[in-house]
Amino acid sequence: MDDPYRDAMREHLAQLAEELEEIAGQLQEGKRSAILYRATERNLQLLIEACIGIARRALKDHGAEVPTEARRVFSRLRTHDLDPTDADWNRIVGMRNALIHDYLDLNPERIAEVVTTGKYRVLLEFGRRMIDPS
After folding, report:
1. Greatest CA span in the chain, whole angstroms?
2. Closest CA to 60 of 7, 10, 5
3. Predicted confidence (pLDDT) per residue in 105-129, tens digit
4. Are 42 and 111 in contact (CB under 8 A)?
5. Cα(59)–Cα(55) distance, rounded to whole angstroms?
6. Global pTM exceeds 0.90
7. DSSP code of 105?
């Protein structure tokens, strides 16, 4: 990955981490509103999209074919032993697809749970470890 991309993603991930921590705090205090819910959805979507972009870039940098379908991107990443996490990418990509396409059928409590329990942090870990592998 080239330095400008790394720098931009590092900043993007830091912003998402900060916002998700703030959202988690509010949710843990019992606060609920349509705006808070939409912010939660959007931040999760952006974080998953960032990880997909990072995974695609890593495959390209290693000279591997880059699939168009997100689940296959992560499968290929693991095939090349490039995924430093044990993230359940099938479920994560499924959540991303639901956030984008099935937003009317989402369970708001399930979305809140992903944030309040910190399950989203595996995505931040993936992004950080892929950007700064050391």
Report:
1. 47
2. 5
3. 889 999 999 999 999 999 999 999 9
4. no
5. 6
6. yes
7. G
